[in-house]
Design brief:
The protein is α+β, with helices and mostly antiparallel strands. It has a single domain, classed as 3-Layer(aba) Sandwich (Aminopeptidase). Helices cover 27% and strands 36% of the residues. Strand 6 and strand 7 form a beta hairpin. The protein starts with a strand and ends in a 7-residue tail after the last strand. Bound molecules: coenzyme A. The site of coenzyme A has 19 residues, from strand 4, helix 3 and helix 4.
């Protein structure tokens, strides 16, 4: 099924990723915001590319000490349900373990069933809720976390 190639985010991806953010979110990350993540310590952003080099989607994570926080997950509509997001999360997890992280955590809208399915399938479990975390529309955020067992952390 190896449909995608997972690579670190680079400058050449930024225009498409800013476009993707606009398509997906009411408060999209800007191109400048994404650009600031390039090479920033504690930043781990990965892009899934189709065989023809087109951006399929991406995942972003910011980490401090052994804590990883996923800030961005999105896939272009025409590339959805092909395993790109799952592959991005798997590669992020491998990188996170290599970096010695103890867990990866994220927020997701309570109504976002497709993303919740993805995270559940990838081993994330609900550990809390942030009341009215989101606006436009206002909604609670579920806190989902995947903890790495100590013996699994290198
Ligand atoms: C959520 C999102 C990232 C999933 O990307 P994707 O590449 O289509 O996901 P995958 O193909 O890797 O799906 C993996 C699993 O997630 C679940 N899933 C993904 N999309 C789903 C949908 N629309 N409905 C139900 N389950 C879904 C399924 O269990 C799927 O496995 P399956 O296809 O074998 O059934 C994508 O729909 C998206 O970009 N949505 C808009 C942005 C967003 O909501 N981001 C998350 C913010 S927290």
């Amino acid at each position: 099924m190896e449909n995608e190639r997972i690579v670190p985010m680079e400058r050449r991806h930024l225009d498409e990723l800013a476009q993707l953010e606009k398509i997906c979110f009411s408060h999209p990350w800007s191109r400048d915001g994404l650009e600031e993540e390039l090479g920033r310590p504690g930043s781990l952003f990965l892009v899934a590319e189709a065989p023809d080099g087109q951006v399929m989607g991406y995942v972003g994570c910011q980490y401090v000490l052994d804590e990883g926080y996923i800030t961005n997950v999105a896939v272009f509509p025409q590339y959805r349900r092909q395993g790109a997001a799952k592959a991005l999360l798997e590669t992020l997890e491998q990188e996170g373990r290599r970096l010695g992280l103890s867990f990866l955590s994220l927020e997701v809208r309570e109504s976002n069933a497709s993303a919740q399915n993805l995270y559940e399938k990838s081993g994330y479990r609900q550990e809390g809720r942030r009341k009215n975390f989101y606006t436009d529309p206002r909604e609670d955020g579920l806190i989902l976390t995947k903890r790495f067992k100590q013996e699994e952390v290198r």
